[in-house]
Amino acid sequence: MDQSNNKSQTYWKSLSQLNGDADFIENLEKEFLKSPVSEAEAGTNQGRRDFFKLMAASVALGTTSCMRPVQKLVPYFDRPEEIIPGLPNYYSSVFVDGGEVYATVTKTREGRPIKLEGNPEFGVKSESSTARMQAAVLSLYDPDRLKAPVKNLLNSAKSNRDTVATSWVEIDKEAKKALKSGKSALLMGHVPSPTTRKLVSEWAATNQVEVYSWDQLNYSKLKSARKTSYGTHELPGFDFTKAKFVLSLNCDFLGTFYGALKNQVQFAQTRTPDQNMSKLVQVESLMSLTGTNADERLQIAPSEQVGFLKLLMTELNSTHGLSWGGAVQNTVIQNYFSTVESVPEVSSQKIKEWAQSLVDHRGESLVISGGAASETSEATWVYQLVNAINSALGNEGKTVFGGSASVTSYHGEDVQLKDLIQDINSGKVKSLFIYDTNPVYTAPNSDFKKAMTQLKTAFAITNYHDETAQLCNYVIAADHSFETWRDAQWDNSEVAIGQPTIRPLYDTRSFEDNLLKWSGSSQTWDEYFLKTWKSKSSNWNETLQKGVWKKSALVQRAGSFKGVDAPKSKAPVSELEFVAYETVAMKTGSMNNVSWLQELPDPVTKVCWDNYFTISPDYAKKMKLTLGKDLELSVNGEKLKAPVLVQPGQNNKTIGLALGYGRTSAGELGSGVGVNAAQFLKNNLSSGLAVESANIPGSVTPLACVQDHHSMEGRQIVVEASLGEITKDPKSGQHKHKIFSLWGKHKYPGYRWGMSVDLNSCNGCSACMVACQSENNIPVVGKKHVLNGREMHWIRIDRYYAGDEKNPRVVHQPVMCQHCENAPCETVCPVLATVHSSEGMNDMVYNRCVGTRYCANNCPYKVRRFNWFNYSQVKFPEKLKLNPEVTVRSRGVMEKCTFCVQKVKEAKSKASLQKRKLRTNEVKTACQTACPAQAISFGDLNNPESLVVQNFNEPRTYSLLEELNVGPAVKYMSKVRNISENLNKSHHGKAHHGDEAHSAPAMKAHDSKIEVHKKESPTESHSPDHGGGH
Amino acid sequence: MESKSLIDGNKSLKDVTDDIATLVETPPGLKWLAMLIGAKTVFVFYIFIIGIITFTGMGLMGVNHPIGWGTDIVTFVFWVGIGHAGTLISAVLYLFRQKWRTSIARSAEAMTVFAVATAGIFPIIHTGRPWLAYWLFPYPNQRGPLWVNFRSPLVWDVFAISTYATVSVVFWYVGMVPDMATLRDRATGIRRHIYGALSLGWRGRARDWSHYEIVYLILAGLSMPLVLSVHSIVSFDFAVSQLPGWHTTIFPPYFVAGAIFSGFAMVITLMTLVRIAIPRFKDYITINHMELMNKIIMTTGMIVGYAYASEFFIAWYSGSVYEGYAFVNRAVGPYWWAYWTMVTCNVLVPQIFWIKAMRRSIPVMFVVSIFVNIGMWFERYVITVTSLHRDFLPANWGMFKMTFYDFGVLIGSFGMFFTLFLLYIRTIPAIAIAEMKPMLSEINHQEDNHG
Question: Is any Cβ of chain B less than 8 angstroms from the Cβ of A854?
Answer without folding.
Answer: yes
